[in-house]
Amino acid sequence: MTHNQTSAIVESPARWIRSRNRWTIFEILFWIATLAPLYFFPAYLNLASQVAITALFALSVDLVLGYAGIITLGHAMFFGLGAFTAGILSSRYGWGEPISGLLLGGMVAALAGYVTSFLIVRVQHLALIMVTLGLGLLTFELANSLRWLTGGTDGLTGISTWKIFGYFRFDLWGYTSYAYSLAVLFLGFLICRLVVSSSFGLALRGIRENVQRMPAIGSDYKWHLRKVYTISAAIAGIAGALLTQTTNTVTLEVLSFQRSADVVVMLILGGTGRLYGAIIGAVIFLVAKDQLAGINPQYWFLWIGILLMAVVLFMPKGILGGLSRLIRRED
């Protein structure tokens, strides 16, 4: 947080909150641009759906990492819980209604997030990383052992998603999947924007900057951390359920450490604590992965590593952070 931003918040918190809720022309143009794949890149609609889903997951992690300072390497736990909830609902119980599947996936993940949040708020720094990593690995092994429910290493089969609102069928070309994923991403973004642009969001920034001072001003920082962790878990669960519904498949990969690590890389690329950084990071990472894997399937991660090092060296606050710093210099 810059000195000017801090001064503006101290001078008038209410005015600062109103300014943060105001939409800019660049934001409006950005969301209009997200419709481009529907008209100009129809061959990449399935990839675009994956980008939208991953961006929603990245937003959930940015809430806790970028705004509350909770470093997590196990957030795939909530993503996977949402994915398996939607998959089990369809394959085991024959219920494929998409909206209720999303909500139930989010609720299950939120419940898990609330329960584990009591453990999360007790530790900090390296211990926090280890706890989140351990929770993620435990959930992965638990899902693997419950083969009768999750399918184990084979995953779930027989998943079928019904028409959205009874009218929009999921087509082979991906038009419905992308439109559906984009709509859910936008709603998730609005929720995240509402959270971070409120007095609650200001409290989260205070916790991130100096957690020791928060009790001195009468703020129950542990309660704030539990709330944002639960909200973040719910959004991650919705993203997982969305993946299951748009692909009609779910495997243990949704609970893997690799998925948690990838989303942290995306946030480093785009910039933490900015919301749009999560979306930009997801776009860059997945598009680069798709193109580089096509060129060299064995060593594509090498080039991702080089890109990551370049961003860290020359843009420590991510691509959006580097661009904003460049704009301020020109002003």
UniProtKB/TrEMBL annotation:
<keyword id="KW-1133">Transmembrane helix</keyword>
<feature type="transmembrane region" description="Helical">
    <location>
        <begin position="300"/>
        <end position="320"/>
    </location>
</feature>
<feature type="transmembrane region" description="Helical">
    <location>
        <begin position="25"/>
        <end position="45"/>
    </location>
</feature>
<dbReference type="GO" id="GO:0005886">
    <property type="term" value="C:plasma membrane"/>
</dbReference>
<keyword id="KW-0812">Transmembrane</keyword>
<feature type="transmembrane region" description="Helical">
    <location>
        <begin position="178"/>
        <end position="204"/>
    </location>
</feature>
<feature type="transmembrane region" description="Helical">
    <location>
        <begin position="263"/>
        <end position="288"/>
    </location>
</feature>
<feature type="transmembrane region" description="Helical">
    <location>
        <begin position="101"/>
        <end position="121"/>
    </location>
</feature>
<dbReference type="InterPro" id="IPR001851">
    <property type="entry name" value="ABC_transp_permease"/>
</dbReference>
<feature type="transmembrane region" description="Helical">
    <location>
        <begin position="126"/>
        <end position="143"/>
    </location>
</feature>
<dbReference type="InterPro" id="IPR043428">
    <property type="entry name" value="LivM-like"/>
</dbReference>
<feature type="transmembrane region" description="Helical">
    <location>
        <begin position="225"/>
        <end position="243"/>
    </location>
</feature>
<keyword id="KW-1003">Cell membrane</keyword>
<protein>
    <submittedName>
        <fullName>Branched-chain amino acid ABC transporter permease</fullName>
    </submittedName>
</protein>
<feature type="transmembrane region" description="Helical">
    <location>
        <begin position="51"/>
        <end position="70"/>
    </location>
</feature>
<dbReference type="Pfam" id="PF02653">
    <property type="entry name" value="BPD_transp_2"/>
</dbReference>
<dbReference type="GO" id="GO:0015658">
    <property type="term" value="F:branched-chain amino acid transmembrane transporter activity"/>
</dbReference>
<keyword id="KW-0472">Membrane</keyword>
